[in-house]
Design brief:
Elements: H1 9-18, E1 23-27, H2 28-41, E2 49-53, H3 60-67, E3 72-75, H4 78-86, E4 94-97, H5 103-111, E5 115-118, H6 123-131, E6 137-141, E7 148-150, E8 153-156, H7 167-179, E9 184-188, H8 200-219, E10 223-227, H9 245-259, E11 269-272, H10 276-279, E12 283-294, E13 298-302, H11 311-315, E14 321-323, E15 333-338, E16 347-354, E17 362-365, E18 386-390, E19 396-400, H12 405-408
Parallel strand pairs: 1-18, 2-3, 2-11, 3-4, 4-5, 5-6, 6-9, 9-10, 10-11, 13-15
Antiparallel strand pairs: 1-12, 7-8, 12-13, 12-17, 14-17, 15-16, 18-19
């Protein structure tokens, strides 16, 4: 598939006049179209609900857009629970899935009425001791171990993952939870990340549906929902074809009717917890070329760095780059596109063919709408960028301001000698 920015050069320059680069830009129209497609793909399941993975893009303005379509929140921490609550997402519209969970997190999840998804069998006693009881609605995370395969090969290795319960533990957990008063049970599994195939969800569904039938028969626990979690990915590289969510939904429907319906479990609700698929392609990092360097290689230096997008630095992940206004110019130059951190891994691209780039050019780094801004940090004292929403009417709305030095120094505000730093928004 061809990758082109969802905003024109003129639009980007106009936004940059309001909100200096670098900034993350999100496409409201694209987000809404994608949400409608997901909703339609699973409309055949009466209880279907998407729990947006807050960790992917924890911005209340974006969460509120998804909420318009009935989305809940998949939370994994105390602060994500706080954000969900602030957006008006409470009760069973929250799925709380966490591991090595602090007691305070369970307390808040229970206070908000969230569905708690237990990562380990030992967490049963820990939860009961923490909140004083076992909720009537509860979920358990499953890890089958081994390798997860589909027809075209190995997808991932759940056996190496730290998450979830073994098969034997899951059966025992259901029996224990039922004895402790749980009435409505859910199963959750996340076995592969960023799959670009229409086959992953149907295969996962088959595994979980067969497990659910046997679990209900063997333990007597009433399984109310099955959470397929995340894993549906996006095509980061131009040559990849995107997933077709409608094909995926139809594949899951066929398995549902083949496995659950004959077992008398046609009332089981299906949940998903998508993050990357929901927002990834509908966000980009906009940065300006500020330097060029010609030594053993040719470099383009930009005003963004791994603080703004760490995936290429820590994973070697590919993110496509477009030079705004030069979309149709031949890519006849080869550059490393780099940021200003004191780390050689601070590279958005290595040996990337691009049109000639000169200082002042705007570069669009694609597919940063999920796990982009949210993974930011402050190494070298670098500050995280603003987030901006490109509205359907073409206007630009600031949805998170850029950090200031005062933000960076805020945790020193309790010390007399340094508190003044936390109150200086601009550079000294």
């Amino acid at each position: 598939m061809e990758k082109r920015p969802f905003a024109t050069k003129d639009q980007l320059e106009a936004i940059a006049e309001q909100f200096p680069t670098p900034f993350h830009l999100y496409d409201e129209a694209g987000i809404r179209r994608n949400m409608e497609a997901l909703r339609d793909a699973f409309s055949w399941n009466e209880g279907y609900k998407e729990y947006f993975a807050v960790k992917a893009t924890p911005n209340p303005f974006l969460i509120k857009i998804l909420q318009e379509y009935g989305c809940g929140c998949d939370c994994s921490s105390y602060t994500e629970l706080m954000l969900s609550d602030a957006c008006g997402v409470r009760g069973h519209d929250i799925m709380f899935s966490s591991n090595e969970t602090p007691a305070a997190d369970y307390v808040l999840a229970d206070k908000l009425g969230a569905i708690i998804n237990l990562d380990d069998i030992t967490h049963i006693d820990f939860l009961e001791q923490t909140i004083g009881s076992i909720p009537e609605t509860i979920s358990c995370r499953y890890n089958p171990g081994g390798l997860f395969e589909i027809s075209n090969g190995i997808m991932d290795n759940p056996g190496d993952a730290k998450y979830g319960m073994t098969t034997e533990q899951l059966y025992e957990a259901f029996r224990i939870l039922k004895q402790k008063g749980a009435k409505h049970f859910g199963i959750h599994a996340f076995l592969c990340s960023n799959t670009v195939t229409n086959d992953y969800y149907p295969k996962l569904a088959e595994v979980l549906f067969k497990l659910a039938v046997d679990l209900q028969r063997e333990t007597g626990a009433h399984i109310s929902f099955i959470n397929l979690s995340g894993g549906i990915g996006i095509p980061y590289e131009p040559g990849q074809e995107p997933n077709d969510i409608r094909v995926i939904g139809e594949g899951v429907r066929r398995v549902y009717e083949d496995v659950l319906v004959p077992a008398g479990m046609g009332d089981v609700a299906l949940y998903t917890e998508l993050g990357r698929f929901m927002l990834g392609p509908y966000g980009c990092l906009v940065t300006r070329a500020i330097h060029e360097k010609h030594i053993h290689k040719d470099y383009v230096g930009v005003d963004a760095c791994a603080v703004n997008l760490m995936r290429p630095a820590i994973y070697g992940a590919y993110h496509h780059i477009t030079v705004a206004g030069k979309e149709d110019v031949p890519c006849d130059h080869v550059y490393d596109v780099v940021g200003g951190l004191c780390e050689n891994s601070d590279k958005f691209a290595v040996d990337r063919a691009l049109p000639e780039v000169v200082p002042g050019d705007l570069l669009v780094i694609h597919d940063t709408g999920a796990h982009g801004h949210s993974m930011g940090y402050n190494y070298n004292g670098k500050l995280r960028s603003a987030e901006v929403l490109l509205r359907e009417d073409g206007s630009a709305q600031l949805i998170r301001r850029a950090e200031t030095p005062a933000d960076y120094f805020a945790t020193l505000d309790c010390f007399d000698d340094y508190s003044y730093l936390a109150h200086k928004p601009e550079r000294i």
